[in-house]
């Protein structure tokens, strides 16, 4: 009788370990899948930036420094994306979003540019990608939150270190990018 109880408890522990292991693997895979979706939209956005720069270059000649910074940031963000450095990529992507917003705001001062069919199409494509990217980031952040909770709570907390699983970063907007842009400075 005592042996049956001990064997039953051991069987429950083993079963619990298998279930926890499978749940942690499923959460890890969900995070990787969500990150893949974010990366696909980032790649799409990166591909649109050179076309946008070309479209606005001849109209916004006085904004050369902004356009050069945009291209430079795109290259850095693309490299971080290729190298699989999500924290650095998220930081650079935030800067890139801020600069793209500046380009859009400054384009308002150039009526010929605003009337350009090419610019309008690029702006619509970029808006569509930005909307999809925002949704993908929300999904990624939810997947990461679920994953981080699973590895920090029992029983996952006991098994995660043995599996080599650690916390994953969530996408956050840096404090300076949460502020409203100073339009006077942009058009000054």
Give a brief description:
By secondary structure, the protein is mostly helical. It has helices at residues 2-57, 64-82, 86-107, 111-115, 117-152, 156-163, 175-178, 183-187. The chain is built from eight helices and no strands.
Structure, explained:
By secondary structure, the chain is mainly alpha-helical. It has a single domain (38-187), classed as de novo design (two linked rop proteins) (Up-down Bundle). The chain contains eight helices and no strands. The protein starts with a helix and ends with a helix. Residues 183-188 have low confidence and may be disordered. This is LemA family protein. Residues 56-83 form a coiled coil. It comes from Thermus caliditerrae. It is found in: Membrane.
CATH topology: de novo design (two linked rop proteins)
The CATH fourth-level homologous superfamily = LemA-like domain
Integer count of domains: 1
Secondary-structure element sequence? HHHHHHHH
The count of DSSP E runs of length 2 or more, i.e. the number of strands, is 0
- Amino-to-carboxy terminus distance: 86 Å
What CATH architecture label applies?
Up-down Bundle
The percentage of residues in β strands lies in under 5%
Mean pLDDT value: 86
Multimerization state: single chain
Structural class: mainly alpha
Helix-residue proportion: over 70%
Main sheet? none
Q: Any idea what the radius of gyration is?
A: 23 Å
